[in-house]
Amino acid sequence: MSEARSDAPEATMANGTVAPNTAEMPDTTPSSDVYAPSDGMIENANITAYMRKKGFDTYDDLYQWTVNNPQDFWADMAQELEWYAPWDQVLDESHAPFYKWFAGAKCNIVHNAIDRHLTTWRRNKVALIWESEMGEMRSYSYHLLNREVSRLANVLKSMGVKKGDIVTIYMSRIPELMFAMLACAKIGAAHSVVYGGFSVDALADRINDAKSKVLLTADGGYMRGKVIELKKIVNEALQRTPTIQTVIVTKHTGQDVVMETGRDLWLHDLFGLPIASALCDTEPVDAEDMLFVLYTSGTTGKPKGVVHTHGGYMVGTYTTLKMVFDIKDEDRYWCAADPGWITGHSYIVYAPLITGATSIMYEGAPNFPYPDRWWNIVSRYGVNVMYTAPTAIRSLMRFGEAWPSRHDLSSIRLLGSVGEPINPEAWRWFRDTIGASETPIMDTWWQTETGHFMITPTPITPLKPGSATRPFLGVDVDVVHEDGSSCAANEDGMLIIRKPWPGMLRTVLNDPDRYVSAYWEKVPGGVYTAGDSARKDEDGYIWVIGRLDDVIKVSGYRLGTAEVESALVSHSSVAEAAAIGLPHELKGNAIHAFVILRMGFEPSPALEAELKAHVGHEMGPIARPEKIEFVTFLPKTRSGKIMRRVLKAQALGQDVGDTSTLET
Ligand code: WT7
Question: Mutate which of 324, 418, 452 to test ligand 1's pocket (most atoms within 8 Å of Cβ)?
Answer without folding.
Answer: 418
